[in-house]
Design goal:
alpha/beta; Rossmann fold; 2 domains; 4-stranded parallel sheet; 42% helix; binds D-glutamic acid
Length: 296
């Protein structure tokens, strides 16, 4: 019996990131939706994705998503902004209908854009979303995410009168992946990328950390952001909006396992992943090493 016809609650929610930064999203998902099962996959062997070409990010992301499908996940959340920006639409439009019509893949750009515009989950432009949101907001993200212009496109639909300023921060992910999250060196690079956002005439009132790794730099970031500016980390807002999505998709919700467990897979260095990831999840866990299969 296929997953489409079986009502059995057995599938974990897959959570994919290019490395361990997505554990910040897993942590928030488990805090808000603790009943579900989760299967996390971090592609540590090939991180960072942020400086890679569109095509390569698509191929890597597709391999990871289909690996999670093969492990029984009916629903995959692409927690990585770069992968969401570069690969989500193509996977949804080209791969799912052909290869996995009963599975779903969600990304983080749309829910984050909603939150950045101050709109409720599932806002529909022109129906539930007021088009009159004004002011200036900012996104900091990897080069890939900024180059994709995905946030500008989403905000253009949701809140066309909002002004967006964007800043690529190419050195932040390598710092985090190297375990460097605070101290003078980190503060130098945090200031270097944040300062230009506040140098203009209409500085942003809200800054979205548009990369799963950036919440690990939060204390350094907060120290550089002027008082009164809101800093949005994605984990909580993605969890809130996934909860709303599940409410609107009971057919998928009914397929999700609810034993409250999670497993962590990585494509490289599981011991290091466990040691550093423990800081994010706040508890010890076991990471298993896996190889991703190239898809034709
Ligand atoms: N996790 C990725 C994101 O959210 C950034 C890390 C990378 O460059 O691979 O964009």
């Amino acid at each position: 019996m296929s997953a489409a016809t079986s009502p059995a609650r057995s599938g974990a929610i897959g959570v994919f990131d290019s490395g361990f930064g997505g554990l910040t999203v897993l942590q928030a998902l488990r805090a808000r939706l603790p009943a579900y099962d989760y299967l996390y996959l971090g592609d540590s062997a090939r991180v960072p994705y942020g400086n890679r070409s569109h095509e390569v990010v698509y191929e890597f992301t597709r391999e990871a998503v289909f690996d999670l499908f093969a492990r029984g996940c009916p629903l995959v959340v692409i927690a990585c902004n770069t992968a969401s920006a570069r690969a989500l639409r193509r996977i949804q439009q080209e791969d799912l209908p052909r290869l996995a019509p009963d599975r779903r893949v969600l990304g983080v750009v749309r829910p984050s854009a909603e939150a950045l515009a101050g709109l409720p989950p599932g806002a529909v432009p022109g129906v539930t979303a007021p088009a009159l949101v004004t002011g200036t907001v900012a996104v900091v993200a990897t080069q890939g995410t900024i180059a994709s212009d995905s946030y500008r496109l989403e905000l253009g639909k949701l809140a066309p009168r909002l002004t967006l300023v964007q800043q690529a921060c190419p050195l932040w992910v390598p710092l985090v992946e190297a375990g460097e999250t605070d101290g003078p060196g980190v503060q130098y690079y945090v200031r270097k990328y944040l300062a230009p956002l506040f140098a203009g005439g209409s500085p942003p009132s809200r800054v979205l950390l548009g990369c799963t790794h950036y919440p690990l730099l939060l204390s350094a970031i907060r120290a550089q952001v002027p008082a009164g500016v809101e800093v949005l980390a994605q984990g909580a807002l993605v969890a809130e909006r996934l909860q709303d999505w599940l409410r609107r998709h009971p057919e998928m919700e009914a397929r999700l396992g609810q034993s409250g467990r999670y497993r962590v897979l990585t494509t490289d260095r599981p011991a290091w992943f466990e040691a550093f990831g423990e800081r994010v999840l706040g508890e010890a866990f076991e990471a298993s090493e896996v190889r991703l299969r190239a898809l034709s």
